[in-house]
Amino acid sequence: MDDLTFGGVMVAAKAGDQRAAELLFLELHPQLVRFLRVSEPRMADDLAGEVWLAVARGLRAFDGDLAGFRAWVFSIARRRVADHRRTAMRRATDPVDEDFFRDRPVADDTAGQSLAHLSAQVALDLIARSLPVDQAEVLTLRIVADLDVAHVATVMGHTSNWVRVTQHRALRHLATVLAKGPAEEILDDRVIPTRARTI
Question: What is the C-alpha radius of gyration for the chain, rounded to an integer number of angstroms?
Fold first, then answer.
């Protein structure tokens, strides 16, 4: 789907056309589920369902292009993740390992090149397990959701500069992790801890 076809599909979907709604779903659902699996792997499918219910309720009020629609859907997804985490935090019993979230100075390296050679699932697993939440969200919104810096800034409620800096830190952190060996071995050997989800 591109901007030329999106307008007609959106008009039809707002009018209740089931096929048009299916096209919107097929366009974004795989990316949405990948994003949610990085953010909340155990609840990804349930959260995706909640996101699509919210999209269905708010579709008639949406006004924008394809990029704006992507940003709107991922904004809803991020709010659902935040709601889930708030609920989980009230029931949390596991401590959060604060040391894991400390920035570590590393030499400049292009982790992006290393990620390009990984399978999509291995790259997502590495991002989910090795990065702080904000950094993981920025990378998944930029790479998986295919949003530009301005739209990521809107979705996350930060400035474009914050998004660029966070993305840079995330890539530097991944470069440090990947320097320990192939990503598959790192994940298999549990060199990196599973990120705490209840923060």
Answer: 18
Residue ranges of domains in the chain, CATH in brackets? 3-90 (1.10.1740.10), 98-188 (1.10.10.10)
**Percent helix, strand, coil in the chain (nearest 5)?**
75, 0, 25
Helix axes 66-90, 44-58, angle to 10 degrees: 130
The whole-model pTM stands at 0.63
Q: How many CA atoms lie within 13 A of 175 on its CB side?
A: 17
DSSP state of 163: H
CB count in 10 Å sphere of residue 119: 10
Which residue has 């590393």 as its token pair? 106
Per-residue pLDDT at 95 exceeds 60: no
The pLDDT assigned to 177 comes to: 78
Higher pLDDT, 92 or 21: 21
**Distance between CA 173 and CA 164 in Å, rounded?**
14
